[in-house]
Predict the structure.
Amino acid sequence: MTALARPGAGRVFAAQFRRECAVVIAAPGEALQPLAFLFLALSLFAIGAGGDPRVLAAQAGAVLWVLVLLATLLGLESLFRRDYDEGVLEQLLLLGQPVFVPLLAKLAVQWLLSGCLMVLLAPALALMLYLPADQIGITMLVLLAGSPALTLFGAVAAALTVGLRRGGVLLALLALPLYVPTLVFGAGAISLAGAGSDVTAQVYWLLAISMLALTVAPFGVTAALRISLEQS
């Protein structure tokens, strides 16, 4: 008897991508919570600053990146929860099924729901912070370069805490140190753009961090999921 050939990586990725999209369509409210938090928190900051355009514009880089970071964390807490509860992770990891490609598909959908949407909404976010129109493009570019690192590094922390019913605080404690370089270069780039300085170096650093995250995070997530399943 001949062994059944396994589907190619492209088909596995596409199938998992469609599955993740179907899950999002079935429960869109959960996927939109981080964006709602981002706009609500940004509105509260604007109110707290008294609506002063100078204050808001001066702190725009730090405020925007901190809120994007927190919104990303909010969406990551349930990243692996459904698969963990339904036993999908156990089937993939403990039964010797390949996990790298479906994991990449899952992370891709997660980034599209968080980082990519935030990039597309960056003009509205920039206007809420009274950033000049010529800085909107820079803001979008910086978010595009740095947001993948937030999703990928955060996924490692989410995998480590998937077995905990109230792992949100631990997730934040594990992920925040990994977010520091992205936060520094992202906020710094927006501040430099406001001062009229060149931000090419900051964008390259953000891209390098995201590429590093793309290289190591899938392996880290796989190892973290194995640890979580073994301890459950």
User: Anything to note?
Assistant: The mean pLDDT is 88. The radius of gyration is 19 Å. The chain has one domain: 13-231.
